Amino acid sequence: MENERKRRNVLALTGAAALLAVAVNFAASAVNAHLNNRKRKAVPGSNVRINLSASEILRLADHIVAKSKEVHDAVASVPLDKVTYANTILPLAELEAHQFPLVQSCAFPKLVSASEDICKASIEAERRIDAHVSRCSKREDVYRVVKAFAARGDWMNSEVKRFANNLVQEFERNGLNLTSTKREELLRLNAQIDELSMRYIRNLNDDTTFLIFNETELVGLPPEFLKSLDKAENGNFKVVLRSHHVSPILELCKSVILKVGSTRKSVAVAYGRRCEVNLSVLEKLIQLRHKLARLLGYLNYAEYATDRRMANSSAKVFEFLEKISASLTESALKELSLLKELKRKEEGEFPFGVEDLPYYVKMIKEQQFDLDFGLVKQYFPITLVLSGIFKVCQDLFGLRFEQVADAEVWHQDVQLYSVFDLSSGEHMGYFYLDIYSRGGKYGHTCVVALQNGSSINSSRQIPVALLISQLQKEVDGNPGLMRFSEVVNLFHEFGHVVHHICNRAPFARFSGLRLDPDFVEIPSLLLENWCYESSSLKLISGFHQDITKPIDDETCKSLKRWRCSFSALKLKQEILYCLFDQIIHSNENVDMIGLFNHLHSKIMLGLPMLEGTNPASCFPRTVIGYEATCYSRIWSEVFAADIFTTKFRDDLFNQNAGMHFRNTVLAPGGAKDPLEMLSDFLGREPSIQAFVDSK
């Protein structure tokens, strides 16, 4: 037994020596993976297909569509008086479970492959599958059969009831309970909404507006930023009104132009005036959304958007946002007073405007906190951070991580890990780590569910996840280091991995990360807290030239204070946009410019909106992806803060609380109401107070 334990690459160790061993182990395994050219082996329990050619991807997509059509045809043929779980719900549930990893086998190569042909095939395969799924969601014959089963009320258990009702709701949100005339109108509305949404985004993407500044007007900006700017004919600098140019100027530019104000103001005003044509596009879009919502039986679009989410109603969202905003007012007033005083000292009697917030918040935080983030980075070697994250999750959630040797992967830097229950040894799932930068790969850190867990007919399918990032593996022959923001981001995304692996929902539909958007971010936001506590920071840090020396206590304290300092005003600004989004989707014929002016003065403590700007014309979140749901990120952050403060703040590695969270919140997935899960875990309904106190 002892020899077997030594042979395995197990990441379930304890103590500082173990962490050092794990970090060395990571480095050694990376070298071995690079040198190992032996034939890779399949992964037991995973139906994800790796390294498909372009033609294989397209053939698999066609097979998926054909098999899905066959199952849907079979369900549609069931007589309405003969419907049972076995001939209606079970075939659809099995189809979802079996086909999801195959669908992802077609879809995920576009994120990781350097081959143009494979990426094109992946995109085309996804298009074919999406088109088929859309057709299936509008099949009246299947809807009638599922509806007949649901109407019987002959539930085997609550999960089957939730599954059947969820199917019915999806069909009905596609208008299958409407007359044919109204259904055709719904199709027209959806097409018009899609066209206007894309036009709004296209207008923003096509905007090439720029401003010209001389070097004096850009004082304070680093030389490397100035070198990145194009030059005008007169030798001055062209600042394109895109976030990668605008953000550094708003944060760093010191220049004050007499009688005009600052360069920051000039840039902020121009940035806020972009795409004025989008105002009329958004107004038409909102009108169409309200028509769609009313056609489906809702009072307005906000009610439609929140109906199947944790918030449940637009009224609940308004109450939540207004309560958070009011509770932050005292802190925000103190922050604003300090910022105004700082501007008077720096620039004289120019009035303080919203455009000054990034610059003076950055300045005051630098004055208050002696934090050199370049030096902080020296304490976060990638391999040590990973081993520390594994250790935190092992101790907290009772998990064991073991690298799978010689697994088939798509690049030599990719690693595959098995996850086991630390106590029973049960194999819970797999995850791939594809975290090192290379050309052609998706540019952001994210988690992709490759195979959802399920338990149908006593057959357990284990979950498989993929974590993608773009971290530098080596720099000048030295191990890669992580910026602190990258450490927090990696912790956050690994929270999604843990959530995916620990999910024990019986149906694939309720497994993985296909959960209520108001809820799915809560576990990951919770895990971010371990990046700001001394005991856990020491687990994931070590000076890159001597990893036995973790980050010091004073830096740990500064990072924690820095996280929440001057956050009330910033959060109020976000609430302003959330309220605007909720109001326009709750009311018709809103004067959007007037509304923004009113909200800005009210929420931002009298700070006026920049004259001549129109934020509604350049607010893409309310157009695609977060329409009537911009509140969701704050919602998740509030409840994550409540969980951390109540259960973990005073006992960071309380495994009883961690296992209770795993079993009560992570395991049920979408098979249980999120508010009920959180209330069961906390022993009461969630509260906003912990979040407010932290700000």
Describe the structure.
The chain is of the alpha+beta class and 695 residues long. The chain has four domains: 54-172, Glutathione S-transferase Yfyf (Class Pi), Chain A, domain 2; 208-268, no CATH class; 277-369 and 566-629, Neurolysin, domain 3; 376-564 and 635-694, Neurolysin, domain 3 (Orthogonal Bundle), CATH 1.10.1370. The strands form five sheets. Strands 1-7-8-9-13-10 form a six-stranded mixed beta sheet, sandwiched between helices. It has a three-stranded antiparallel beta sheet with strand order 2-4-3. A two-stranded antiparallel ribbon has the order 5-6. A hairpin with a 2-residue loop joins β11 (454-456) and β12. α3 packs parallel to α6 (116-136) and α26 (655-666) packs antiparallel against α27. It is globular and about 80 Å long. InterPro entries: MetalloPept_cat_dom_sf (IPR024079), Neurolysin/TOP_dom2 (IPR024077), Neurolysin/TOP_N (IPR024080), Pept_M3A_M3B (IPR045090), Pept_M3A_M3B_dom (IPR001567), TAT_signal (IPR006311).
